[in-house]
């Protein structure tokens, strides 16, 4: 179907490891034209293009999407040909730190009631501010299990097979009609993505809440604890007490919260599966650990904070999650100080706990 | 009294920051002769002596105790003049890692039924293996609030006033007679220490369990969390959520455990006092953080592990303490790997959580 019409017009926001590989798959399939918005790597890519080392596509030198910009374009709402069909967001999520917020940032490029917004990001409740800002647009979920990182500006190391799921975030207020359109938008993107060929696995996701809570089993446990301990997941598994004392209790708390807060059934057996999900031999460092090692902000509010708040409202006891959240907030404080978002006073005068 | 007799003979085990300042105070008072057992700094001290920068004593160049050894001496039990009156241990405590254990290590220098063993170390239940090994010897507690570190071999930076408390560990089996002797041994050491003059505050501690649980309020909270977060105590206080979410709950759990497990009453108000105990302006890094930064072993078993086990036996709920313990065990695992105490296998074959 999609292959008969004109290519879909995609604006990609966040062209690091994951974003660039999404753009590459879409462009390679021939059913999409991608305009990528770059920030830190704009100059490098303008000069040398992207250089990709991919587990799926091999080495790709001098690759460039259809178009590259260094800021979000403002779409002329009156010119039909200018509309973006999709705005795909692959940046990390730092609610409360990002200014402007992501919905505000992309708004100039979004045609109300038309453009589908695709969030290829981790965590739960990430769609809420987009539903609030764009109540008549399809808001789509992208969950990817690929591993990819930008090792230096424009240099992409794609080290884990691209397995990506695209579906529809259930809307609190959508009509049956809106829902049908959103599903069609999701399926059309899956088609354009899959046109790349058998190197990638892109699948329609019929149950986004389930998929997101399922992935949260890993992201609310291994990802956060890895950042706190500075430890890859294989070492955690070898040091069994970290699994028994922290990882499994966290997964159990997420499972209980998924059921109570979202009526999502995560089977008990899934926990043991998730504990050994990573290939032991790879000594994998989850994303938050990679960010912590680089002194970057930690993407923990939608991975740990939101499930904790959901648990609170659903009256589920999640002591381990609460504890991990407190520590991640402490690590985030350090990153915020490093980036000048907070200034620690030299004396304790007037502070709540300043007195000596 | 003490000043009329011959100087007491002291063997000091562990002559880093704290140990060297204890030796200096004792020797300066003229009522003690200190033989110090050195390990990593032996060569440096043999060559250049100690060089001390002290908040209490000023700069002291080329200082040397009465005698320096590089291993624990074996005392000739038949020669009365050879006995040590005191063996003072100021090393850190790493039960399960140290080989041989501290009691085994010092045994050759201890005259059974005679030598008083003084543990200037943090935590609770540290006396147990000494009572087991030396059932007829006085086992004394030293709690110091001085701050001192060896910045390089033989160079001592003594940055916080020497305030030290010496008392008797209650023995599970001592007779009234043994108790009286132990108290006399403690008071005699306080006298010898105090002979140094008003630069130091050395006091007899009439209630060791109270003093140790009181200090644990700080050591089981700030000390462990500082190591986990890599953060000084002033930053934790400025980032109020770390106090509210972690430090105060930990102190409350220690307070409840002290009461239930040891019948020690720590007043509620003490918690707020302890929260602001450090001078904010100093941005103090507790000892475990200093050790973590240097990749050293963490002294957490007697500071966090033992209160946790006491809480378990007394059926006190200590969820925060339990999580802190799990994480510290994870950090210790990293230190053990670094020092070659564990080898992480390259593949997960045969491991409990190895399968992929």
UniProtKB/TrEMBL annotation, chains A, B:
The keyword NADP applies. GO terms for molecular function: 2-dehydropantoate 2-reductase activity. Transmembrane segments: none annotated. GO terms for biological process: pantothenate biosynthetic process. Residues 210-332 form the Ketopantoate reductase C-terminal domain. The keyword NADP applies. Residues 10-170 form the Ketopantoate reductase N-terminal domain. InterPro entries: 6-PGluconate_DH-like_C_sf (IPR008927), 6PGD_dom2 (IPR013328), ApbA (IPR003710), KPA_reductase (IPR013752), KPR-Related (IPR051402), KPR_N (IPR013332), NAD(P)-bd_dom_sf (IPR036291). Keywords: NADP, Oxidoreductase. One of its GO terms (cellular component) is cytoplasm. It holds the Pfam family ApbA_C. Belongs to the ketopantoate reductase family. This is Ketopantoate reductase PanE/ApbA-domain-containing protein. It comes from Sordaria brevicollis.
